[in-house]
């Protein structure tokens, strides 16, 4: 059914709380990784990607905080997210947005695979014609 205004506000506040909490956890983990880097240890590829994502999220947090801090500015957030879709830190993404991104990536991979298959088939035809 439809949610009441109170329930919508509570859901949004919970979403922001969870997003900030996840960002805090990521920041603590990233600080440990930086500490390890400064002491000469090598990061794995996965750790390096996580560190880069967390740093990017911290830089994205600055304009996002303007929307949260300034009164009634959060009403403009959907407009800015439409104009700048990568403005939101990754910990604040909803499940539907994550699924949408995964679908786009999958479609791109399928198109690439289709193109490569067609290319290989064309090359096989040319080789067969050259040898035959």
TrEMBL record:
Pfam families according to UniProt: LETM1_RBD
GO cellular component, one term: mitochondrial inner membrane
Top-level taxon: Eukaryota
Residue ranges occupied by any Letm1 RBD domain in the UniProt entry: 43-128
Lipid bilayer topology: Single-pass membrane protein
Segments passing through the bilayer: 58-81
InterPro entries named in the record: LETM1-like_RBD, LETM1/MDM38-like
Signal peptide start-end: none
Keyword rRNA-binding tagged: no
Biological processes, Gene Ontology terms: intracellular monoatomic cation homeostasis
GO molecular function: ribosome binding
Alphabetized UniProt keyword annotations: Membrane, Mitochondrion, Mitochondrion inner membrane, Transmembrane, Transmembrane helix
Localisation per UniProt entry: Mitochondrion inner membrane
Protein name: LETM1 protein
């Amino acid at each position: 059914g439809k949610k009441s205004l109170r329930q919508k506000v509570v859901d949004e506040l919970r979403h922001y709380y969870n997003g900030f909490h996840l960002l805090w956890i990521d920041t603590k983990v990233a600080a440990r990784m930086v500490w390890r880097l400064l002491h000469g240890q090598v990061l794995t590829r996965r750790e390096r990607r996580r560190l880069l994502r967390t740093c990017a999220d911290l830089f994205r947090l600055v304009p996002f905080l303007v929307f949260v801090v300034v009164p009634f500015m959060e009403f403009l957030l959907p407009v800015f997210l439409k104009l700048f879709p990568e403005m939101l830190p990754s910990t604040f993404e909803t499940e539907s947005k994550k699924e949408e991104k995964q679908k786009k990536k999958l479609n791109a991979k399928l198109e690439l695979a289709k193109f490569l298959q067609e290319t290989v088939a064309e090359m096989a035809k040319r080789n067969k014609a050259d040898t035959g």
